[in-house]
């Protein structure tokens, strides 16, 4: 006696005739979108770190210029009167 298998399909279901030989456009599109998003995130991170370091370097150089010109930071501690000089 032979066994027969019957598939029960719903109203809007069609039998699957894809044997793996169909196109993979969904997988390819998903891979491309994922790669673009990944590269954008890496680029954003590199840009953020670059501009943050550049800004910190500028702030540090301004701080050095201010402290070099500031008379309060010199050895005389800003006192210009001769009574306070050593």
Account of the protein in words:
The protein has 86 residues and is an all-alpha fold. It has a domain at 34-71. 52% of the residues lie in helices and 0% in strands. The chain is built from 1 helix and no strands. The longest helix is centred in the middle third of the chain and has 45 residues, at 25-69.
Quick take:
The protein is 52% helix and 0% strand. The protein is mainly alpha-helical.
Overview features:
mainly alpha; 1 helix; rod-shaped; transmembrane; membrane; transmembrane helix
Low-confidence stretches: none
Strand count, sense and barrel status of the largest sheet are: none
Strand content: under 5%
Q: Quick one: how many beta strands?
A: 0
Structural class: mainly alpha
Q: Please compute the radius of gyration using only Cα atoms.
A: 36 Å
Write the layout of secondary structure elements.
Elements: H1 25-69
């Amino acid at each position: 006696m032979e066994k027969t298998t019957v598939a029960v399909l719903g109203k809007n279901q069609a039998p699957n005739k894809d044997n793996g030989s169909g196109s993979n456009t969904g997988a390819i599109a998903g891979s491309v979108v994922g790669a673009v998003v990944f590269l954008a995130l890496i680029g954003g991170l590199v840009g953020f770190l670059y501009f943050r370091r550049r800004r910190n370097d500028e702030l540090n150089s301004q701080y050095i210029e201010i402290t070099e010109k500031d008379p309060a930071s010199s050895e005389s501690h800003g006192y210009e009167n001769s009574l306070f000089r050593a």
